[in-house]
Amino acid sequence: MRKKKAPKRFLAPDPKFGDPLVTRFINILMYSGEKSVATKIFYDAMAHIEKNNPEASGYEIWKEALNNVAPSVEVRSRRIGGATFQIPTEVRPDRKISLSMKWIVRYTRERSGRSMYEKLAQELTAAAKKEGASYKKKEDTHKMAEANKAFAHFR
User: Fold this and answer.
1) How many alpha carbons lie under 13 Å from residue 121 in its C-beta half-sphere?
2) Tally of domains in the chain
3) 14, 22, 72, 99 - which has most CB atoms within 10 Å?
């Protein structure tokens, strides 16, 4: 076990938007250590969103999508007296963002389409409109927590 807590590492903000969350999203999007490819995919997706939605910026839609997909409760397995219970727990703010980013990237990769930036743009616009697979994952997580709220006292 650790003697002391590991220090939190802070990411540098991205050059275009100046937001460390964008850098974090690009790192999650990155595949096989190819950060320049992931960066190009992200910025191309932002340009694609802006082309299709001239009234809103791609960055704003991305932020909206992250907020819509972020879960507020999740279930955690806990073993009590030989039985395993799914106990609903609140999600830490840092984990909320992390989960929403991971879900968006996961369901973007599962989408059928031509190129990754188009699939990412479609998933982000769908999540911003409160639809799509990543938003459905959040809804399913909330339903599961609601169904198991009888076990909340085991927390």
Assistant:
1) 21
2) 1
3) 22
**pLDDT tens, 76-128?**
888 888 888 888 889 999 999 999 999 999 999 998 888 999 999 999 999 99
CATH number, position 109: 1.10.455.10
Q: Going by DSSP bridges, is the β-strand pair 83-90/73-80 parallel, antiparallel, or unpaired? A: antiparallel
30: left (phi over 0), alpha (psi -120 to 50) or beta: beta
CB atoms within 10 A of CB 33: 7
Q: How far apart are CA 79 and CA 93, in angstroms?
A: 25
Which pair of tokens denotes residue 23?
Answer: 């850098």
Cα end-to-end span (Å), the chain: 23
Is there a domain that residue 33 lies in?
A: no
Amino acid at residue number 96: K
Residue 14 CB-half CA count within 13 A: 19
